[in-house]
Write a structure and sequence with these properties.
The strands form two sheets. A three-stranded parallel sheet has the order 3-4-5. The protein has a two-stranded antiparallel ribbon with strand order 1-2. It starts with 11 loop residues before the first strand and ends with a strand. The protein has three helices and five strands, in the order E-E-E-H-E-H-H-E. The protein is 30% helix and 16% strand. It is globular.
Length: 97
């Protein structure tokens, strides 16, 4: 998928002590990692999690935070990224712990 370049619809904030400018708000990956069985955060399917990433990016969010501890989050975010064009992926900032 392709999204408008620039992501100018949301304010930017400096990320910590870096020179990176990221969207405020960002997309937190913990809820994207939930199992479908509802054990964590009420459950979420791969398709719903992947669509959430696409919707967030499509609305101007270009900062995504995740962690290996978030179960399926990194895998689902990776699938969503693989479905985006290279120009969009270049604009994103992905943070992991």
């Amino acid at each position: 998928q392709s999204y408008a370049r620039g992501f100018s619809s949301l304010p930017l904030r400096r990320l910590g002590r870096t020179e990176l400018q990221v969207s405020a708000p960002g997309l937190g990956g913990v809820g994207l990692g939930a199992k479908e069985d509802g054990e964590l955060y009420g459950g979420i399917s791969d398709d719903v999690a992947i669509e959430a990433v696409h919707r967030a990016v499509g609305r101007g969010i270009h900062f995504i935070d995740t962690s290996p501890l978030y179960l399926h989050s990194e895998r689902r975010i990776g699938i969503a990224l693989s479905q985006m064009d290279a120009a969009t992926r270049e604009e994103l900032v992905i943070s992991t712990k």
